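Hi R.,

As promised on Friday, here is the backbone we talked about, encoded as structure tokens. Could you run it through your design pipeline when you get a chance and send me back a sequence?
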């Protein structure tokens, strides 16, 4: 298992230049925002406006901080809050209106026809076992988690990410206090 520490994430401008994004992971490792197979990032959205266009990309968005956002995707409107998970085509015109001030979102993207993804919020109240599918990222939304695989034990802080792939045996995730995890699977 590979630990991606929040302190080491890469910050870069949005593709449309209207803000900054924090890249958590990208595949392949040498990919750019124009040629990745999949990508996971966070962004602070501080004002209403257009989202970057990502031709051929499917996107899923979750709110990590803030009250909510209304997305207009090709003239269809979606209102969501911190409990929601919303997927949409990244190549359709998309604009956002903030509900009540800035938000921080988690953005999961995959190249249509090459990779698919699934995103799930999980509350960790007791030990849970995760396997690769063949690639899975476990993002700590809130709290501190312990990850165990074979003889390895690691502590994950808030916003750290655990990457498990086909070469990783099952990983057990646990926490001494309730914690929130976002599971992202790519296949």
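Update: got your reply. Pasting your designed sequence below so it's all in one thread:
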């Amino acid at each position: 298992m590979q630990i991606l520490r929040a302190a080491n994430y890469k910050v870069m401008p949005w593709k449309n230049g209207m803000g900054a994004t924090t890249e958590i992971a990208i595949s392949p490792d040498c990919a750019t925002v124009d040629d990745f197979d999949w990508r996971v990032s966070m962004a602070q959205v501080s004002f209403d406006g257009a989202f970057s266009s990502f031709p051929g990309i499917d996107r899923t968005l979750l709110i990590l901080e803030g009250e909510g956002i209304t997305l207009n995707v090709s003239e269809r409107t979606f209102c969501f809050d911190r409990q929601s998970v919303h997927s949409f085509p990244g190549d359709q015109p998309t604009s956002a209106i903030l509900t009540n001030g800035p938000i921080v979102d988690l953005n999961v993207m995959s190249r249509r026809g090459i990779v698919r993804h699934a995103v799930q919020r999980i509350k960790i109240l007791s030990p849970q076992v995760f396997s690769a599918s063949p690639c899975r990222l476990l993002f700590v939304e809130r709290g501190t988690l312990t990850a165990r695989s074979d003889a390895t034990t690691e502590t994950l802080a808030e916003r750290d990410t655990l990457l498990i792939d086909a070469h990783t045996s099952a990983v057990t995730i646990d926490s001494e206090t309730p914690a929130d995890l976002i599971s992202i699977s790519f296949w």
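One thing I noticed while checking it: Residues 117-186 form a domain with the Jelly Rolls fold (CATH 2.60.120.10).

Thanks again,
M.
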